[in-house]
Amino acid sequence: MSRLAAPTKLIESISDTARWAAVYRARETERSDALFRDPFARRLAGQRGEEIARAIPFSERATWAWVARTYLFNQFIAEQLDQGVDLVVNLAAGLDARPYYMNLPAALPWIEVDLPGILDYKEAVLGAEKPRCHLERVRLDLSDAAARRALFERLGAQSKRALILSEGLLIYLAREEVGELARDLAVPASFQRWVLDLASPGLVKMLQKNMGAQLSQGGATIEFGPPEGPTFFSPFGWKPIDVRSPLKTAARFKRLSLSMRLIAMLPVSNGAQGRRPWSGVCLLDRQ
Fold first, then answer.
1. Whole-number Å distance between alpha carbons of 38 and 27
2. What's the whole-model pTM score?
3. What is the mean pLDDT of residues 74-91?
4. For residues 217 and 20, what is the distance between their CA atoms, to the nearest angstrom?
5. Residue 143: alpha-carbon gap to chain centroid
6. What local confidence, expressed as pLDDT, does residue 267 receive?
7. Tell me: the pLDDT tens digits for 208-219?
8. What is the 3 state secondary structure string of the chain?
9. Contact status, residue 287 vs residue 234, Cβ threshold 8 Å
10. Residue 234 burial (CB < 10 Å; 0-12/13-18/19+)?
11. What is the rounded distance in angstroms from the CA atom of residue 169 to the CA atom of residue 286?
12. CA 258, CA 267: separation in Å to the nearest integer?
């Protein structure tokens, strides 16, 4: 079945955030000047995704952030494939449909890892569609350290140069959990690059104030925003080699309101972060 039981709360679980994210990919896709086209996003989001998005006014005012994040991840993926990546591992893949719409090598192994419920739903919606690469779905709770380490060991042995993706994941984890995940990802020698999105403490505080109550209904708590910025990952075996600004990206493509355009004119700061609201999409290299 492609429909889940009628919800009793706006957000019943963290997996509902995947429907929410899909709404903004769908809206961007429907623009004449779209930065990307995900023809499956509208189906995946469903009416439930629209209900969630419309019920969170702060998110509706920040559509640019969702769009720019997707665009920047797409950029990094394409660039890394050109540089020889032979495996993509998408952690907390949610309703991401990149294996169906991006220009990917047919033989590329692409591994989606997420909870059973959300992957079952995606398979039901996309059952008749054919991915453009070799797609494998792994139903796994990433908080199960033993299970994820076993998975990383298996996948590490299958590649020479793997790319890890964790879009929209880390912000919901505690600092210690992010450190443990980073350390585990640094174990397989073939896990060479990692693309992630990162928030500052100031942005985390802003999001908690404006969206925290709705997210907490489903046990999704906004937590991770390291004051060190991207260098947080250095002690765990990863170094930032490229950090791109969703705000600057949205400004370049005219996705911002006037007030946000003025903010986007401020100099970029990709180092240690504090009370200033900041986000970045980061490419990490194993040390």
1. 10
2. 0.94
3. 98
4. 14
5. 17
6. 84
7. 999 988 888 877
8. CCCCCCCCCCCCCCCHHHHHHHHHHHHHHCCCCCCCCCCCHHHHHHHHHHHHHHCCHHHHHCHHHHHHHHHHHHHHHHHHHHCCCCEEEEECCCCCCHHHHCCCCCCCEEEEEECHHHHHHHHHHCCCCCCCCEEEEEECCCCCHHHHHHHHHHHHCCCCCEEEEECCCHHHCCHHHHHHHHHHHCCCCCEEEEEEEEECHHHHHHHHHHHHHHHHCCCCCCCCCCCCHHHHHHHHCEEEEEEECHHHHHHHCCCCCHHHHHHHCCCCCCCCCCCCCCEEEEEEEEC
9. yes
10. middle
11. 19
12. 17
The first and second tokens of residue 69, run together, are 């994040």
How large is the average pLDDT for residues 160-181? 98
Domains belonging to the chain, first-starting first, are: 16-282 (3.40.50.150)
Angle ∠(47,57,61) on CA atoms, nearest 5: 105
Residue pLDDT, tens place only, 86-133? 999 999 999 999 999 999 999 999 999 999 999 999 999 999 999 999
The dihedral over CA atoms of 227, 228, 230, 232, expressed in degrees to the nearest 10, equals: -110
Has residue 9 got a pLDDT over 90?
no
Q: And the tokens for 235?
A: 């002690």
> Minimal CA–CA distance to 264: which of 52, 272, 205, 254?
254
Side chain identity, residue 235: P
Strand pairing report for 238-244 and 279-286: antiparallel
The pLDDT value recorded for residue 8 is 58
C-beta of residue 264 within 8 angstroms of C-beta of residue 247: yes
Does residue 101 come out as left (phi exceeding 0), alpha (psi in the -120 to 50 range) or beta? Answer: alpha
